[in-house]
Write a structure and sequence with these properties.
Chain lengths: ~425, ~625
């Protein structure tokens, strides 16, 4: 008989025997057991003999959580979407799973119940952030608007960190007339450990959502490697800049809006849209799906552009080099982008250039190759991040295809995505 | 003592740092730093939900009040130690050493090894867990008194070093975090104190035989598990000196026997149910006390609190280890709360407490003939907690010898440190897939196992003409350096041993570990005659004080041709002419000392001696 997970077995290998509880094994042909000293060890199934097997242990059940509503605290809402911050480790097996219920978030930061009261906790979907689609943004926008319009002082969205900045940008455009905080929060370390960073992020986000005078879509995450404060970052001017550090989210071409501390103190650093609790937010969720981000790089074959043109794409954001350049004077003509861009424009495809440097602004007039593009109708997106430009373009194209209308809107500073005055900062970029 | 009759069981747990190129889970070097850190980060560590999904409220409260952890880091650290990057795969070099040690211990290698996370919440690890993996089980070593089983051989990461702490902050240094450790746990089948020492010695030899372990202070940590049949399980931490292991075991056995006797005596008098926990404030009795400790506590707005211990008369004064009473044991518990200690009836009146004060306390607590009391002084809430712990410990005295962790003391005794920890939560390190050790690799390691200690000693005796004790010494301390020095330099083994002795002294006295590179550079200069053997001590001393070896050596390299030497000696002789005339031939040895001081080891002693002799003879003849 095959041993099942939870069974207590004694295995013999050579002249040694091992007793332990069977743990799920990722490999079919091996068996893993947990010894009484806590260690897990594994064997190839065909290398051991099972000499004893006992009844199955009952699987452990995660207990229920209750949360009380408190009248003296501001009402906020929580939307859980998956990601590290919404995962839990089964200490027995080491397996990771999503939270069963959004309320389980209180395990990670029980202090939340003293900062705000949660009028609603929902979980419309549970996915890793790299798997997000426009569909998800639409759900989040509608859900957020519903909560804010029915009395919540703010919304916290827990989310995987990989594409957190795409979601924050999408919501910045979709949530029209937003004047309450929508805080996106994630975690870079797993919640099984004492060094989990998500608790502090959640606590700080609760202060922003319930107590601050901010009225924008923002990311609230660690401000430095220390557990000292979180940055509140404008949803359209923020980017994940490190694959693993907890202070991965950095403001780009702007400064942090505010710093939030664990005791609730909020230090303001730059201007932002102010909270106005009387305003009604309107979720405008139309998005054009036939849009893409394409990066320009040496030896890029414009056939790739032709593919998008032929497939009927409506808009392309090009991550152009530096000031907004793409190849035009290549030795071999087949690598020049001129013909393909021309063809795209002839078919009324909107082309937007943003800088792949991320930091700084594009400018078509410094070099001739920029002028060529500008004359063909390429829209130069100032200091907008490519990801932000992509979501903005998709959102605009959801409403109009008319070139001048699109251009006017692209260059209109709708949600703080453009900064006309980038300040010199001697501490880096 | 008849240890068999007592049912003595001793087990050893050894943690040995490995001298690998990189750390166990990242590519940083395994070196400790003494200079100022590059920078620090500040962290909080949160209690995590338990298996059943509950947050431990007590642990959470502790956290809220809790400590801030400061971590110092260097250019020899990376994001992994900062808990800002997932672990890299296990160091291959460390794996191989783990397998090698396992094979030398006759242990069976685990087929599929899984790195585990062991929860640690004292701040000594930035991630709040220690990574560890079981490499092998069920081995044994042979001792003169029979085999000792090896339960497990593990490979784990060392913790960060605690640098300082106060009420709110603990500061750690990340240089040590991640250095690979081999952890060896023997079964509890060591049956007498001498065997414990032998087993520890043999394990040490086996580890050193690999040639891949770190040497010097703090690179090996040994714990002893000691129990007797009627006693309890005690883990003795910080057992550093091998020679003292038998004494530590004996003293622990003594202690457990004494506690068993106390238990019998107490049960004759009554039962733990007769004990009633009541704290009575007795500050008023001590308002004009001449006890300095109590007076200063009262002055700092503290109070004096007492509790009665029914049937404990004479018990607190009983010796349980040489020079330590049961009362001392209770005082250790009290000290864990930050109080300076306690007073108990068996030692009073004394320490400035008068018999009048004692009698007043007796009256207030209604102390009967067979009863005892203890007094503590300090802040009310702390005193109450401390007295409660004293009370709980006294209740246990009726029932058992408590299982606990104790700190080994220099004199062979030990003091209470904390209850034996429950088993730490351990779960898989999901960032590192389980791995198997290739059977080809195991076979290869097996065929190339290092010589055993005895084999190596015999080889050194034959090859280098060493005496047995010299060979043992060298093989235990520094075999690789010895072979390198002897084969490439003109250095006699006696000089090598002398330098080894000097560096060991420095290690004991200054805590400074001389590295092989330094010793080799020094021997090179001695070999070339640039530094006389008398200069070795000075060089090592200066290096231990933080001077750069190259600079120290260059100091010694200044030209000393024999004409200069002769001139300098002549000068000394002229100054001391009267002394020479007075003492005659006997003047040579004090003058020799003077000359050696002058040259500070830069000139060979035999040359000085020769010149000195000539000059003295000249003077004596001419007079
Ligand atoms: Zn490192």
């Amino acid at each position: 008989m095959e041993p099942e997970v939870g069974d207590i077995v004694t295995l013999r290998k050579g002249n040694t025997s091992y007793e332990g509880i069977v743990i799920p094994s990722p490999k079919k042909d091996s068996i893993i057991i947990k010894l009484s000293n806590g260690y897990n060890i594994g064997f190839r199934k065909d290398s051991v003999e099972i000499i004893n097997m006992e009844k199955k242990q009952k699987p452990k059940i995660f207990s229920e959580v209750k949360f009380e509503k408190r009248k003296d605290l501001p009402e906020i809402s929580l939307i859980s979407t998956g990601g590290t911050i919404a995962s839990r480790v089964d200490y027995e097996t080491g397996g990771v799973r999503w939270l069963m219920k959004p309320e389980e978030i209180f395990f990670m930061a029980p202090e939340l119940s003293d900062i705000a009261t949660f009028r609603n906790i929902s979980s419309p979907f549970q996915i890793a952030s790299e798997s997000m689609t426009f569909e998800c943004y639409k759900i989040l926008a509608k859900e957020s608007a519903k909560e804010l319009n029915s009395g919540s002082k703010g919304v916290i969205i827990t989310h995987g960190t990989d594409t957190l900045h795409y979601t924050s940008a999408a919501l910045s455009f979709m949530l029209q007339n937003l004047s309450k905080p929508v805080c996106l929060v994630g975690a870079q370390r797993s919640p099984d450990r004492g060094s989990f960073d998500g608790s502090m992020n959640l606590i700080c986000a609760s202060y922003v959502a319930g107590h601050s005078d901010i009225g924008e879509s923002v990311i609230v995450m660690h401000g430095e490697m220390s557990d000292t404060y979180c940055n509140v970052l404008r949803g359209t001017k923020v980017r994940k800049m490190h694959s693993t550090r907890r202070d991965t989210f950095r403001p780009i071409n702007t400064s942090t809006l505010a710093k939030v501390f664990m005791n609730g103190k909020i230090e303001r650093f730059s201007d932002y849209r102010k909270r106005n609790d009387d305003n009604e937010v309107y979720p405008d969720i139309e998005m054009e799906e036939r849009t893409a981000i394409i990066k320009a790089y040496p030896n890029f074959n414009p056939e790739i552009l032709d593919y998008y043109i032929d497939k009927g794409y409506k808009g392309l954001v090009i991550e152009a080099s530096a000031l907004g350049h793409v190849p035009t004077d290549t030795i071999n003509e087949k690598f020049s982008w001129v013909d393909s861009i021309k063809r795209a424009r002839e078919q009324d495809i909107i082309i937007v250039f943003a800088t792949q440097c991320l930091f700084g602004r594009v400018d078509p007039f410094v070099y001739s190759n920029g002028r060529i593009m500008e004359e063909m109708g390429v829209i130069y997106a100032e200091d907008m991040l490519p990801e932000t430009a992509y979501l903005k373009l998709s959102w605009i194209l959801g409403h109009t295809n008319e070139y001048f209308e699109v251009k006017r809107n692209m260059l209109d500073n709708m949600s703080g995505e453009i900064n006309y005055r980038i300040k010199g900062d001697k501490n880096g970029l | 003592m008849d240890y068999k009759e007592l049912g003595l069981k001793v087990g050893l747990e050894i943690h040995q740092q490995l001298n690998t190129k990189r750390k166990l889970f990242c590519d940083c070097p395994t070196i400790l730093r003494t200079d100022d850190p590059l920078d620090t980060i500040e962290r909080r560590l949160r209690p995590t939900p338990s298996e059943i999904g509950e947050v431990d409220v007590a642990a959470l409260k502790e956290y809220m009040r809790g400590k801030t952890y400061i971590y110092q880091y260097y250019d020899t650290n990376c994001l992994v130690e900062l808990d800002e990057e997932p672990p890299h795969l296990v160091s291959e070099e460390a794996k191989i050493i783990g397998v090698e040690v396992s094979l030398l211990l006759n242990s069976n290698i685990i087929e599929e090894i899984q790195v585990m996370r062991k929860t640690v919440l004292d701040g000594s690890n930035t991630s709040a867990f220690q990574r560890t993996m079981l490499i092998s089980t069920d081995g044994y070593i042979e001792t003169k008194q029979g085999p000792v089983s090896i339960l497990t051989v593990c490979l784990e990461e060392d913790a960060a070093r605690l640098i300082s702490q106060d009420d709110t902050t603990k500061t750690f240094r990340l240089d040590r975090l991640g250095i690979p450790l081999v952890e060896i746990a023997t079964g509890p089948d060591i049956s007498n104190p001498e065997q414990a020492k032998e087993a520890a010695y043999i394990l040490g030899q086996i580890l050193r035989a690999t040639g891949k372990v770190k040497r010097g202070l703090g690179t090996i940590r040994q714990d002893l598990n000691v129990s007797i049949r009627e006693g309890g399980r005690v883990e003795l931490k910080g057992v550093q000196k091998l020679d003292m292991i038998p004494l530590w075991v004996e003293r622990e056995v003594e202690r457990q026997i004494a506690l068993v006797e106390i238990k019998k005596e107490l049960n004759k008098r009554g039962s733990e149910k007769d004990l009633e926990f009541k704290i009575i404030e007795v500050t008023d009795i001590f308002n004009n006390t001449s006890s300095k400790i109590i007076a200063s506590s009262i002055k700092k707005n503290g109070g004096v609190y007492a509790t009665k211990l029914k049937n404990f008369k004479g018990i607190l004064g009983k010796d349980i280890q040489k020079g330590r009473r049961f009362g001392t044991e209770l005082a250790d518990h009290v000290k864990t709360y930050g109080l300076s200690g306690l007073f108990h009836i068996d030692e009073l009146p004394n320490y400035g407490i008068t018999s009048d004060e004692v009698n007043k306390v007796r009256a207030k607590l209604k102390i009967a003939e067979l009863d005892s009391f203890v007094i503590v002084a300090g802040k009310e809430d702390i005193c109450k907690k401390a007295l409660e712990e004293v009370f709980e410990r006294c209740k246990k005295a009726f029932l058992e010898v408590p299982n606990e962790t104790r700190d080994a003391l220099e004199d062979g005794n030990s003091k209470y440190s904390r209850p034996l920890p429950g088993r730490a939560r351990m779960y898989p390190e999901t960032d590192i897939p389980p791995f198997t050790i290739d059977s080809e690799l195991i076979r290869n390691i097996k065929e190339n196992l290092p010589e055993t200690f005895d084999e190596k000693v015999n080889k050194f005796i034959d090859k280098y003409g060493l005496k047995k004790d010299e060979a043992e010494r060298i093989v235990y301390e520094s075999p690789e350096l010895f072979e390198k020095v002897i084969s490439s330099l003109d250095i006699k083994s006696t000089i090598f041993i002398k330098a080894l002795d000097l560096s060991k002294n420095l290690e004991r006295e200054e805590g400074y570990v001389t590295d092989d590179q330094t010793l080799y550079l020094l021997f090179e200069k001695v070999s070339k005659g640039i530094i006389a053997k008398e200069g070795i001590e000075e060089v090592l001393k200066r290096v231990s004080k933080g001077e750069d070896i190259e600079i120290v050596l260059s100091d010694f390299s200044s030209d000393n041709n024999s004409a200069d030497v002769e001139f300098a000696i002549e000068k000394i002789i002229l100054e001391k002419k009267d002394f020479i005339l007075e003492k005659g031939d006997r003047a040579i040895s004090p003058l020799m000392g003077l000359c050696m001081k002058e040259f500070r080891g830069k000139v060979d002693g035999s040359l000085i001696n020769k010149i000195l002799k000539e000059k003295i003879d000249e003077i004596l003849k001419s007079s």
